[in-house]
Amino acid sequence: QMPASDGVHLIVDKAQHIHQLTTELLKRIDPMVLVVATVGSTLIYLKVSKIYSRSELPLHKRLVAFAFTQARRLSIVQRKIAEKLGPAKEDILNSIHKDDTDRVFISDIPSTGKSPLDIEILSKKYEDYGHFAVDKGKVSGTVYTDRGEEHLQMLAKIYHNYAYSNPLHPDVFPGVRKMEAEVIRMVLNLYHAPKGSSGSMTTGGTESIIMACFAYRNIAQSRGVEMPVILCATTAHAAFDKAAHLCGMRIRHVPVDGNNRLDVKAMEKMISSEVCMLVGSAPNYPSGTIDPIMEIAKLGLKYKIPVHVDACLGGFLIPFLEDAGYGVDLFDFRLSGVTSISCDTHKYGCTPKGSSIIMYRSQEVHHYQFFSIPEWCGGIYATPTITGSRAGANAAVAWATLLYMGKEEYVRRCKEIVFATREVAKGMENIPGIKLLGSPDISVVAFTSSEYNIYAVGDILHKQGYNLNSLQNPTAIHVCLTYNHANAETTKQFLSDVSDATAKVSQLPDKGNSSSTAALYGLAAQIPDKSLVDEMTYAYLDACYASPPPKEL
């Protein structure tokens, strides 16, 4: 057996020999060639590394997608795709406009104005296109309050007074400036924000999330990180992907556990010097499960990384859980690691659509969200959010709603909604073949099945007047309960209808695999080039703005 010292000497001798051979070889090469080769190979390495890090997909899947994309450039392939997509796009257009009974489309401003009465009659006609019974709990999420008449009448009066107000001009509209500031402070206090905390009102949860990502990107770039990374769960809202796209950031998705909660250990392993924010959902959208915010906040403190809590969905439920008699772990600014929170007032806060709050632990962090051009020829220009002009009426009706509802009413509604959610979850577990997806912690119940295609169940429920949400990866359906679901009659009827639908699907020879939604999602999952799926989603969005096709005879 060779002594350790002899082994070391042998390695050193070999290294020296290799060094001498390499030196002799390089002496024969022009120094300029060496310099160019070194610089060029370094640049190529950096470019390839950047391209590789842009996507989380495995390399083989990227290569398959790339090959598919190249094949699409061939004219014969393009013709085949057009043949297949043409009818599908036509179906989408007809589907979007199916409720437009008269197919009359106003495309030009009338020469002379119409009377208020005529306009009111026409608007009522448009309103009657909708056929979902929102007030009877047939719709998942979407409208979160019962739209009480007294509340609506008050909102109409407030809107009348503030319809043309604009917080961009606080000197002209000092009242709406104060309303907006008071709404922000009320929500900050609801989340136990410390002294020196700050926030902004936005148009919705997506803008609130984008603003937080924008702020943390700016902080990271000020510290020399060229392309900062967002670290969030696979169940985090798609708005984080949108923010990464808009802000020139990268996003990495952390796996979740069996209950659909973010895996904290996996998150810690994914932390690098480029990570600019850690994200936890309270709750997440797909299954309504609350991520372990306390543990994520500890990670933030340990690695000195900002932590954002996305409470857009449950923003006006989770703060009232304790008073409603339900236990909940800390999730807000009482955790020193939490640096920002997004909360939608226009969901369970019952305000009209168009208001959300992005909150920060300190003004210092909030300032990184601001945008300022001090040398613009039109004067010094500064805005707190994406938009310049903002609808002051949105701030006014949000302010009015918070004052009208009061904490006691929010607690009462929270108690009833959470109770109804748990009753639905309990009932689902008694339906043959149904399995809950994740943990229904607040107001969402997600369910799937390994015995039959759950999308087929959703299609049957849709025909019965329900509007539920289809999920993927894994396949599931969820219902987001609102105040309109919070009664025994509605929950009992829903469970009965789900039970009947599952019984029908389970008796089908193919277990529902040929249903329209099952076919759509099945096809989307098989296509390696997701730009084809994008093309269909764009067709859907185009149809929303298109004039209606002629009625089918």
UniProtKB/TrEMBL annotation:
The protein's name in its UniProt record: sphinganine-1-phosphate aldolase
Modified residues (N6-(pyridoxal phosphate)lysine): K347
Location within or outside the cell: Endoplasmic reticulum membrane
GO MF annotation: an example: sphinganine-1-phosphate aldolase activity
Family: Belongs to the group II decarboxylase family. Sphingosine-1-phosphate lyase subfamily.
Annotated Gene Ontology cellular component terms: endoplasmic reticulum membrane
Cofactors that this protein relies on: pyridoxal 5'-phosphate
Pfam families linked: Pyridoxal_deC (PF00282)
Pathway terms, separated by semicolons: Lipid metabolism; sphingolipid metabolism; Sphingolipid metabolism
Protein keywords: Endoplasmic reticulum, Lipid metabolism, Lyase, Membrane, Pyridoxal phosphate, Sphingolipid metabolism, Transmembrane, Transmembrane helix
GO biological process: carboxylic acid metabolic process; sphingolipid catabolic process
